[in-house]
Amino acid sequence: MDKPRRPVVVTGFGPFGEHAVNASWIAVQELEKLGLGDDVDLYVYEIPVEYQTVQRLIPALWKKHSPQLVVHVGLSGMATTITLEKCGHNVGYKGLDNCRFCPGSQCCVEGGPECIDSIIDMDTVCKRVSTLGLDVTVTISKDAGRYLCDFTYYTSLYQSHGRSAFVHVPPLGKPYTAEQLGRSLQAIIEEMLHVLDHSEGQINCRHEH
Fold it and tell me: Where is the active site (predicted)?
């Protein structure tokens, strides 16, 4: 019997600051070429580095695709590894976006929890991907940086009750090529879907803390 097709949305970010080319969007385009296997419908989007657009776009993507999983990919100028972010934060957004805007409340969702964890066990994903022999290093983080990456992640986690993930990539060539980033994303997201399948029966209200 054919497995039902699973919608998965993956986003990267557009240019900002000194990053005229955003490695996250390049990586997502590489992933799109590779695909996620026959039973996954992959939808990719480039997100502008704008708070208000994020607040409008994330709910729209959930509504449009009812995805099994949304994975946001972002660029960290400081990163030298591919980093899986465990949680998104609600408060502390002071950095101006590409429109020179930042939320007056400096938070994503007024009255929302301080921090929301992904329901995906990033430690498990990290361990599994690290055994695949990809020529990249994958690490874990609990701080997505209180800028558009963290803001997007929290907004998405809030919207999806934790059914979102965030992956930070380093700038292109520092040290990884676009192709390496794309292949790594493919492996990471396949593992995330695997972990999600196995945890579906055990999901409780972990995101309510």
Answer: 85, 149
Domain presence at residue 1: no
Of 85, 87, 108, 191, the catalytic one is 85
Active-site residue, 85 included: yes
- Higher model confidence: residue 202 or residue 168? 168
Residue type, 85: E
Q: What is the mean pLDDT of the chain?
A: 94
pLDDT cut 90: percent of the chain above it: 91
Our answer to whether residue 149 is catalytic in this structure is: yes
Give the tens place of pLDDT for each residue, 40-93: 999 999 999 999 999 999 999 999 999 999 999 999 999 999 999 999 999 999
- Cis status of the peptide bond prior to 175, with omega within 30 of 0: yes
Of the listed 126, 149, 190, 191, which one is catalytic? Answer: 149
CATH of residue 86? 3.40.630.20
Domain holding 105, by residue range, is 6-208
In a domain, residue 89? The reply is yes
